[in-house]
Structure formats: structure tokens, C-alpha cells
Amino acid sequence: MTKPTEIVTEPSERYLNRELSWLKFNERVLEEAQNVAHPLLERLRFLSISASNLDEFFMVRYAGLREQERAGIQKRSLEGRTPAQQVVEIEREVTDLMTEQQECWKSLRTEMAGESIEILNIPDLKKADAAWLKAHFDSHIFPILTPQAVDPAHPFPFIPNLGFAVAFQLDPNKGAGEQMVGLVPMPAFSKRFIRLPDRKSGLLRFVRLESVITEFQQMLFPGFKATGHCVFRIVRDSDIEIEEESEDLIAEFEILLKQRRRGRIVRIHIDEDAPAGLREFIVREMGAEPRDVMKLEGLLGMKDLSGLIASDRPNLLFKPFEARFPERIREMGGDCFEAIRAKDILVHHPYESFDVVVQFIRQAAQDPDVIAIKQTLYRTTLNSPIVSALVEAAEEGKNVTALVEIKARFDEETNLRLARDLERAGVQVVYGFTDYKTHAKVSLVVRREQDGLRTYTHFGTGNYHPVTAKIYTDLALFTADPAMGRDAGRLFNYITAYKEPPEDGPELEKIIMSPFAMEPFLIERIHREADAARDGRPSGIWAKMNSLVDKDVIDALYEASQVGVPIRLIIRGICCLRPGVPGLSDTIQVKSLVGRFLEHSRIVCFANGEALPSAKAKVYMSSADWMDRNLKRRVEALVPIEVPTVHRQVLNQIMVANLNDDVQSWDMSKEGEYHRIASYRAGEGFSAHTYFMDNPSLSGRGSALVVSEPPKLAPRKRERKLK
Questions:
Q1: Which of 33, 485, 486, 676 has the highest local Cβ count within 10 Å?
Q2: Contact (Cβ atoms closer than 8 angstroms) between residue 394 and residue 426
Q3: How far apart are CA 298 and CA 296, in angstroms?
């Protein structure tokens, strides 16, 4: 066999850049805002999501590269770029992306006006509306504004991360006195779009808060007249780094969360027509660099567009559907334990309700025979029903352990508050390792039964989050398998018993765990498929995940491809692998599915001697993407799917449906470009999301679908090669 390095040796020819690949994903999100197959307000939601995604990218990824650039770091990325080179490429791509966002907004705004949803300019208001707005400003906006002069006696005020402000060039009304700059920070918790009173049934009208502030400038700065003004928005470095030897992890995080608000500026978005002198003043006073400034013609802060999505216009939203509750639990009178004891249960969110997970924990809390509950919490809500059930269990005197990951990015503050609430209720709260995030999603219930103690375990690919469970596709496995229960117990004990991770992880019977065993296990399974292909036996790999970045796994996939292993990957976001490169990855196909639901489940299937899909295939679900951080620096779980009915559900239905989707799918080229599949243009095709919404529970059924060959592709509107 020819070695991969003898075919393609240059990193730039073997791999794609992680950051640019992510920007390509966000382009696909933005293009869903232009997808006329979606209802109008859902398209607006996609635009808002693309803007929110971009904010987070700048706060974390771009900010980190800029810091490396300032420090003179020359370490190259997977494909061979320095931090400085990546920054230049990112800035070029982002400029185009944000221009497209503005064009999309203009188009959507026109369509919204056609549906009687209008964003009005204040000079266009009729007298009655102007009078109402003045009264509303006096009562609800003016009291919470803090207009500030900026001069030697009044330093430039602090603008928090993602904060807005309106700046004014001010002249005295009567010409006496000095000019000054006035600044009005926009209140963080005020609505960005103010809804005017209904004048006609079905007509929704809004004005922007920044326009209202500008309109009533003289109330804010009496005696001065504005000769120029602009709106600007700040994006700051918001990543958190903790000291390795921090003695009090909680206190350390509380300090860092406060510092995050004051992180270094990485971006200033400012009106295109801002007076040059005012713009230069803002940049200078904020200590920013000229390259941090991006002038925008249009709307700043598009993430706020979600505030225009009106629930009283259901005709402009996705048709609601009711998530199903697992039939077997219903047939058992709602007894989760009896149903799980009979056979493993797989729940496919959001098509099947997250309520079953809540009911499982609540039943455990209320059952007098349950003596212990152990639970990981990575992301959830402050009013989480899971947390409420854990509190109830602790108050009932049960032994309750909650592993709260306070390093979950942008959920640190929520998780700190939850941890304190749990501790007050008597829950034993642990925080995992300083250097390793605990990303595994596991619930363990120990119940006293006639034949002794029995464990009931829940493994998930997604978070214990009731909101995201309605919009993310995830898998949840409930099992009473004793070996799986023992493994879950060892996983918890491993995290709670060690200050630092031991060199080798716990010895597990069935679960594969990172940061120790998962990457070697995946590579070994990939090599097995390559050996089968060399021997002339059937082989194949199907995998579904959010991101593929890990170099060693990518190289193993390349090696398998070179001996003929058919590999089909469904990767929603980042993909650093180049598919279809002659001599390197001829047999690898990559697609991305972006649509109504966020594809979040992680699944991997190995043919294991028979052509996929087959009953002999090895099938696993996981909390981990194939990224360095997940495989080397996080506690993750890879869980085997062994019960035949569940095996068929995951392999023959969920994976086949995703592979067959040609309505919301994009095919990836070796250059890193994505192309919509042709049937989308024809208005026909198969949608995985629609299939699972429309069908009753598929649990326990045989193969409902037959895997198809990859469909033909339609070119994208704009082409730029990703290197």
C-alpha cells in the first residue's frame, strides 16, 4: 500500500483551515435566511443566528489569534498558516460575509413590509405615533438612560462586551461655549425594537431604540445641538483562562467573569456615515487599533433581529409539531424504570420529547427505593426541571451528586448559580478537573430492588437543557445494562476522586472514554476497516458529528480511503479533511445538513465485515466531536449501541435518513467549498427533518429507508475556494 505521505505531503494540500471552515458553516446558516422554502420570520431567525455565531467567533477564536499575533507566535495551524496569516484571511472572509448579511437584511425587510411588518424611520411617523413615542420615551426609556459628556472632567465611559452606544458631536445652541462629544450607552436589557401601537389589525410596526435616542437628543443634552452622530457596537475578547494551580476554582471564575466584560476590544462596528472626526475620537478613546474598526452601511448588531419574530404571526413561522413521548413508557403507566428494565430505550430529540428525561429524574427523586442519583450538568437553564428534581431528591434524603462543569463557555455564570442552589439543598456538587472539561452527558440512578441494587443509566449526545432539546437533534439512551451502569459509576468516581487526572483512565467494560481511550479506539476501528478492504472483505465507515479537526483521526481516514474503504461523513460545521482528493481521499464523501433543527447528535458506524447498513455493524453514539479538545482535553463518553432494535433505529433509520437528505444538505468539495444538492432547486427531494417529524415513533422497527447514492449538486451563488 502507498503511504499517504508519499501521495500528498504538503499540509496545505492535506488539510483545510479550521477557522475558515467555520466561516463557511456560518455562510450556510446565512444562506438559510435566503432560502425561500422557509417561512419569512424563520429566515429572519437564521439571519439573527448567523450574526450571533459571528459575535462568538470574534469573542473567542479571532480574539485568540490576535493575541498570538501580538505576541509574535509563529506556530502554524494544521494546514500551515501562522496566526497573522489566519487573521488576514479571516478579516477578508468576514468583510464579505457581513456585507451579505446586510444585503440579506435589506431583502428580508422589504418582504416583511409586504407582510405588514414594518421597521419605520422616525421622520416618517404620523403625528399620533410621534406623540405616543414621545410619551413612551419619557416614561420608559429616558429614566434608564445615562447621557455622558466626554471631556477632561468626564472620561470616556466603559462600554461592555456587545454593548451599543450613540455618540454625538455637540455644539452649544447659542454658539457660546465649547463643542463636546456626548455619549449615550444603550441599556443592556431594553428592547432594541420598540413596537408602536397597532393602528390596523395585522399591522406590526417598530422603531429602533438608537433612532429614538437620536430623535430626543436635546432632552439628553439640553442646550446643545447635534451636528453629527453615529451608533457603534463593541465586541471584546471573552475567552476565559484559569490558573492551573488555582486554589479556589469558584472564586477564580467569579473574578474572571467580571473581567470578561472588560476584555480587550477585538472589533468596533460603526455606522458607515459616521463623521470621520467622531469615529477617530471613539477609536482613540477606547484604545482600539484602526484595524479593529469595521464600518457598516445598514443595521448593527443583527443578533437582535430575533426580537422582531412575532408569535402572533404563526403563518410566517414553521408549522408547530408535537414531540412524541416514548410509547413503551406510556404503556407502562409512565413507569420509566419498568420500561427501561424491559429493554433499552432510545429517544430521538427533538422529535421525541425531552420530558422523558425529566420524568426519569423526577421519578428517581420521588421513588423511595432509589438511594442515589449522579448527574453531569454541562449546559442547562436557571429554572431547569432537572435541577429542581435533583434538589427534591436531596431534600428527600437521597445521596445526590451533581458534576457541574463551570468551564462551559458562556454558561459559567449560570452554572455557578446552579451549583450554589444545589449545594444549599444538600446536593454534593463537584466541579471536575481544572484542565479538563467534563463534556460527557450521563445520569445514573441506583435503585434497591428485590434481587439487589440495580442501576439505570441515561447517556446523551446533547445537554440537559429543556430549551435546546426542542431545536437540537440529539440521541438519549436509557439502559439498565449492569456493565453500562458500572461504567457510568466508574466515570463519576474517576472525576470525583482525583484532583488531577491519573495517567490512565478507569478500566471500563463497554464505554470508551476520552481523554485517554477514545482517539486510539477510533483510529484502531478505522484501521480494522482498512484491513478488511485490503483482504477483499466488505468495509465502510459512516459518521455524523459537528466538527472534524483531529489530525490523527483525519490521517487514519485518509489511509483507509487509499485502500478503498467507502467513507460517508455528515459534518455540520468545521471539517479540516479534504474529501475526494485523487490518491488521498477518493472514497470519502462529506456533506453538511443545515435546516430547521441544529444537527447535534454524534454517531459513528463501522461495517465490521458486512456492507453498511447491517446487523453486524458496530454502532456508537457519543458526546464528543472528532476534535483535539474533545479527544485529548475533555472527559467524553463513546457508548456502544447493542440492543438490536435500537441498533436498527440508529443505523438503518437515523443515519440512512441523514445520508439520504437532499433538501437541506450541502456537499463539500476538496477545495472546501459547499454546494447545495440539486433536488433543492427542483423543489423536490427527501428531508430528514420532515421525515422524522411526520413519522410515528420508529423505535423497534426494521429498516424504513434504503441508503441512496449521493445526489447531483447545484452550484452556489458565490464561490470562493477555502484553502
A1: 33
A2: yes
A3: 6
| β pairing state of 541-545 and 567-571 | parallel
DSSP label of 711: P
- Residue of higher predicted confidence among 287 and 151: 287
pLDDT for position 382 = 76
pLDDT in tens, 641-653: 999 999 999 999 9
Q: What residues contact 223, with CB distance under 8 A and at least 6 apart?
A: 172, 173
Q: Is pLDDT larger for residue 199 or for residue 45?
A: 45
CA–CA distance, 128 with 615 (Å, rounded to integer)? 70
pLDDT band, very low/low/confident/very high, at 723 (cuts 50, 70, 90): very low
Q: Do 173 and 225 contact (CB within 8 A), yes or no?
A: yes
Q: What is the DSSP string of 566-628?
A: -EEEEESS-B-B-TT-TTTSTTEEEEEE-SSSEE--EEEEE-TTSPSS-TT-EEEEES--BSH
The single-letter code of the amino acid at 415 is N
| Section 622-644 average pLDDT | 95
How far, in Å, CA of 307 to CA of 639, rounded?
40
**Omega prior to 350 cis, within 30 of 0:** yes
Residues that are catalytic: 439
Nearest C-alpha neighbor of 267 from the set 289, 285, 301, 293: 293
Enter the C-alpha cell of residue 181.
462629544
Q: Please compute the mean of the pLDDT values over residues 144-169 and round it to a whole number.
A: 89
- The domain over range 5-100 is classified in CATH as 1.20.58.310: yes
**Position 251 confidence tier, pLDDT thresholds 50, 70, 90:** low
Asked if residues 661 and 686 have their Cβ atoms less than 8 Å apart, the reply is yes
Burial of 84 (C-beta count, 10 Å sphere; 0-12/13-18/19+): middle
Decide whether 327-510 matches 513-694 in CATH topology. yes
What pLDDT score does 678 carry?
67
In the chain, where the domains are located: 5-100, 116-316, 327-510, 513-694
Nearest to 476 by CA among 486, 464, 465, 461: 461
pLDDT of residue 177: 67
Q: What pLDDT, on the 0 to 100 scale, is given for residue 151?
A: 80
Topology of domain 513-694 in CATH is Endonuclease; Chain A (3.30.870)
Distance CA 563, CA 559 (A): 7
Question: What is the Cα–Cα distance from 627 to 195, expressed in whole angstroms?
Answer: 44
DSSP string, 13-32: HHB--HHHHHHHHHHHHHHH
| Sign of the alpha-carbon dihedral angle for 386, 387, 392, 395 | positive
Average pLDDT (575-592) is: 97
Angle at CA 316, nearest 5°, toward 313 and 320? 85
**pLDDT for position 378:** 83
- Helix, strand, coil fractions of the chain, as percent rounded to 5: 40, 20, 40
For the segment 363-374, what is each residue's pLDDT rounded down to a tens digit? 999 999 999 999
**Calpha distance 383→367 (Å, rounded):** 22
Q: Packing angle between helix 63-70 and helix 83-114, nearest 10 degrees? A: 150
**In sequence order, what are the residues at sequence separation of 6 or more whose Cβ sits closer than 8 angstroms to the Cβ of residue 268?**
232, 233, 234, 235, 282, 283, 286, 288, 292, 293, 294
Q: What is the CATH number of domain 327-510?
A: 3.30.870.10
pLDDT at residue number 711: 46
Instruction: State in Å, rounded, how far the first CA of the chain is from the last one.
Output: 28
